[in-house]
UniProtKB/TrEMBL annotation:
Residues 312-540 form the Peptidase M1 membrane alanine aminopeptidase domain. It is found in: Cell membrane. This is Aminopeptidase. PANTHER family: AMINOPEPTIDASE, PROTEASE M1 ZINC METALLOPROTEASE. The active site is at residue 385. Binds 1 zinc ion per subunit. The chain crosses the membrane at residues 12-33. Gene3D superfamilies: 1.25.50.20, 2.60.40.1910, Neutral Protease Domain 2, tricorn interacting facor f3 domain. Its cofactor is Zn(2+). GO terms for cellular component: cytoplasm; extracellular space; plasma membrane. It is a single-pass type II membrane protein.
Amino acid sequence: MGKVYYVSKNIGLGLLVLVISALVTIIALSIAYDKERAKNQGQPGHRASDGSSTSPPFTTPFTPKEPWDYYRLPKSLIPESYQVTLWPQLQPNADGMYVFTGYSSVIFRCVKETDLIIIHSKKLNFTTVLGNHIILMGLGGVTPPAIRRTWLVERTEYLVVQLRWKLTVGASYKLHSKFTGELADDLQGFYRSEYTDNGVKKVLATSQMQATFARKAFPCFDEPAMKATFNVTLIHDRGTVALSNSKEKDYSDTVKDGVPVRVTTFEPTKTMSTYLLAFLVSEFISIQSSQNHLLIRIWAQRKAIADGQGEYALNVTGPILQFYGKYYNVSYPLSKSDQVALPDFNSGAMENWGLVMYRETGLLYDPTLSSTGNKERIVTIISHELAHMWFGNLVTLQWWNDLWLNEGFASYVEYLGADYAEPTWNMKDYILLYDMQRAFAVDALASSHPLSRKEEEVNEPSEINEMFNTISYSKGAAVLRMLSEFLTEPVFAKGISSYLNTFAFNNTVYEDLWNHLQKVVDKTPGLHVPYSVHEIMNRWTLQMGFPVVTIDTQTGTVSQKHFLLDPSSVVERPSPFNYTWFIPIKWMKNGLDQQQYWLLKKTDVHSSMRVSGEGWVLANTNVSGYFRVNYDANNWARLLSLLNTDHKALPVMNRAQIIDDAFNLARAQIISTTLALKTTKYLSKERDYIPWQSALKNLGYYILMFERTEVYGPLQAYLKKQIKPLFEYFKTITSDWTKVPAGHSDQYNQIDAIGIACGVGVEGCRELIQGWYKQWMENPNQNPIHPNLKSTVYCKAIAFGGAEEWDFAWRMFENASLASEASKLRSAMACTKIPWLLNRYLEYTLDPAKIRKQDATSTIQYIAGNVIGLPLAWNFVRERWSYISQQYGRGLFAFHNLVNGITMRFSTEFELQELKEFKEHHHAGFGSATLAMEQAIEKTTANIKWVTENKAEVLKWFTEETT
Ligand SMILES: *[C@@H]1O[C@H](CO)[C@@H](O)[C@H](O)[C@H]1NC(C)=O
Ligand SMILES: *[C@@H]1O[C@H](CO)[C@@H](O)[C@H](O)[C@H]1NC(C)=O
Ligand SMILES: *[C@@H]1O[C@H](CO)[C@@H](O)[C@H](O)[C@H]1NC(C)=O
Ligand SMILES: *[C@@H]1O[C@H](CO)[C@@H](O)[C@H](O)[C@H]1NC(C)=O
Ligand SMILES: [Zn+2]
C-alpha cells in the first residue's frame, strides 16, 4: 500500500512549523504522513470489528493441532482460476443492513494427497445451492469425493470441507459456493462508503483486500503465493458503473429478484495474488487519456471530476508509467490503468493491480485550492503505487515477512518516478526528510527490529499488520537506495529488470533479487564491490539498527559503532554480525569528491582521510549511505566554519544531514549539545528548504521538551534572530506576500518562514495572518489565503482567535468541497488555545457524522500536539479507551500514531508513571500497538534523562546567543 494516511509527508513537515511557534500539533515525524502505511487495519482474530471476538485473548497461547488450526494454508491444493460474481446492494435490506451476495467457483489442482479442502472465508454466510452448501466437481472426467462435512473456523478464518475419501494427486477440481456478506462501512474486504452529492446521499461499494480481506469478499486461497486468474462479474444498479482489475468485456441488462440490474463481466485477469483484487460499484465518473493504446482513467465523485480535480493525476500517470516501463525494461503488464479517489479509505492508497485506490487527498488536485504540498503528495503517492504494478504485483514476494522489500522498493523508486514527472522539483533529495531521517529516528531505539523476518515468525493477521511500519517502508527505501548508489543506478536497474523478467507472474523471496543483482555485478567490469550483494546486504537487513561512522582526520582512523539514541539502553537482541556493517562511504575532501571507501571492519585506517590546516573531510556525500557520521573536534570546527563562510561548498543534503547527525549524536552523548546547537548558527544565511527543515525538526524536539519551561523564552528569541532574514527574504521575493515563489522548495520554505516568524513574534507576521483570515470571514466565498499558506494561516488565526474564528473554520470544514481543504481545517481547529473548544472538538471525534471514522484518531493526535490540548487529549483517550480501541484500534498505524502523538512531549516522572499505569491496566488491549506502547515508555524515559542532563547547558547557550 501507499504509506500515508493522516497527514501527508509534507503537510506533516509543515506542521513542524506550527509547533515551533508553539501553537500546534506537530505530529512527530514518525507519525505524520505515510503514503500507504496505514493500511491494514485489521487484527482479525483478536478484536473483531463488531466486538464479538470469539478468539482467545492476545495473551492466551493456543496450541494448534488440526490442519485448520494453523494460520498458513496446507500446501496440498493450488488454485488456478476463479469465477467470482458479486452483487453489492446499495440500499439497505429489510433489517436495515447493507449486504452483498456472491457466487464463486475455484478451480484448483491437488498436488498432495488430502481429504480436506481448507480455504479462507471470513464473515460470509453460505447459502444452499441445490440443497448443498458446497458443490465439488472433478474436472477432466475425475470423480470427486463426496463431501462428509463442512464447517467454518472463525479464529483462522477458514471454510473447511472434509471429504469422504481423498483427492487424487494431479487432478483438478472445481469448488462452487454461494454466499452473502455484509457490505459494512468497515473499510475492509468488500465494503461500502457514503458521501453526498448536492445534498443527495450516495452509497458505493469498494474494496480493500490487502493484507487478508479478500476472504471477506469470497472464499479464496488468500495467500500472496496462491496466484490465479480471476473471471469477475459484477451485478449492479443500472445507474452505476462497475470496475475491477481488468477491462470490462461485456454487459447486459436484466432483472434479478425483481430488481432491474446490469451485469458487467470483465476480461479474465492475469495470474495474480488475491490481495491485489479490487471491485468498485459507484456513480463515479472519469476522465481518460490513452498512451500507446493503454487506457488511463481517473475516477472520482461526479463533482470532483467535473471541477477538473482529476486532471493533474491524469497528467502525471502517463509519464510515470512510461518512466517505469523504461526503468524496469518491462512494458506495463495490463491493458488499462484505473485510479480511483474514495471518500472513505483506510490507508493512503492501495496498489490493486490495474485499479488503484486512493484517499481523495492522494489523487485530487485543484489548482486554485490545493497547495504545492498536496500536489507533491499526489505525484509521489501515484508514483509509489504505480511502481508496485511491476514490483509487487507482476512479481510478488512469497510471504508477508518480506514485505519490507516490496514497500521499501516502492518507497525508494517513487522518488525516481516523481522526479521524472516533475523534473524541476528535485524530488530525489526529499527522501532524506521523508524517509531516511524518519528511519534513523526509529531504528536508533533498542526496541527496533531487523528489516527482514523469518517466514515462520509471521503468521496471523496481526503479525502481518505489524510488518507495515516505518522500518519496512523508510529503512527499506534507505537501504535500497544505498545499494543502488554503490552498485550504480544502471547496474541496479539491470538487476531489477532481470529479476522482473525472470519471475513475472510468479513469487519470490528477497534473496532472488540479490541473486539477480549479483549476476549483473559479475558481468560489469570495473565495478568494485568488496563482497557479494548477499554478504553486504545481510548486514543491513538481518540485524537491526545502523552504524555511526567516526572519522579522525588527525590520524585517518575510521571506525563504526551501533548507533543508539540512548547509550544506556540494553540491546537484548543478539546480532549474527555483532552489530558491524560493510559500509560504502562516499566522501569529499576540501571540496573534491574522492573515491568511494569501504569500511569493512570495526576500525580501520584510511590515510587519505588525514587532513591538516584548513583542510576538511565530509563523509557520506549526498547521504547516499544509511549511517550517521561523527568527526574529530578539529574537523567539526572546520565544517562549522565552512558553513558560516561558504555553506554552498557542501551539498544541500549534507548541510541538512550535518545538523541531523549532530543533534542525534548529542542526544546519544557522543558529542556535546553545544556543538549540535552550533550547527544551526549558519541558518541565518541558509535559503534552502531541506537544511532548514532538518534544523526545525531537530529544534522541534527542544520545543517539545522545553515549551513548558523557562528555556522557552531564550529559545524563541534565538529562532527569531535566525528566521528573520528568511522571512524578509521571502517578503522581498514575493513582493510583499502578493506572489508565491517560483521554486518548489522555495514554496515550502516560505511556509516555514511565515509559520515560525509568526510563532516567535517577528514584527508584522501576526497582523498579516489575522488580516487574511478576517478578510475570509467577512467574505467566505472569497478566500484570499494562498493554498500553500492555508495550513499555517488557519492554524495561527484560530490560535490567536476565539470561538468565532473556530466556529467559522468548522462551517468551512463542513462545506469544504475538496478533501485536502477539509483536512487543513481539521488540523487547524486543533490549534485553539481555549480548553472548552478543544474538549468539544475531542467529543466530535467520536461522532462519525462530524468527523469521519478514518480521521478520528488523527484528529485526537492533532489536539494532543497542542501544548494546551495534550492533557485534555490524554484524559480523553484514557477515559474512552475501550470505546476507542474497539472502534479504531483495528488500524495498526492509527493506533501507533495515537500513542506516539500523545506521548511525544512526555518528559516527566509523573507522565512516565501515568503511562506505565495505563499500560498495566490495559495489558491485553493493545494488540499490534503493544510495540508503540513499549516505544513510548522507552522514549519518555529517555526524554526525562535528556532534559535533566541538558537543560542548564541549553538554557545557557540560547541565552548567550541572544544577549
Ligand atoms: C475463467 O475464464 C477462463 C477463460 O475464459 C476459463 O478458461 C476458466 O475456466 C474460467 N474459470 C472458471 C473458474 O470458471
Ligand atoms: C450471517 O448470519 C448471521 C448469523 O445468523 C447473522 O447475524 C448475519 O446478519 C448474517 N449476515 C448476512 C450478511 O446475512
Ligand atoms: C495538465 O496538462 C495540460 C496540458 O499540458 C495543462 O494545460 C494543464 O494545466 C495540466 N493540468 C494540471 C492540473 O497540471
Ligand atoms: C515460479 O518460480 C518457481 C521457483 O523459481 C519455479 O519453479 C516455477 O516454475 C515458476 N512458475 C512459473 C509459472 O513460472
Ligand atoms: Zn506500497
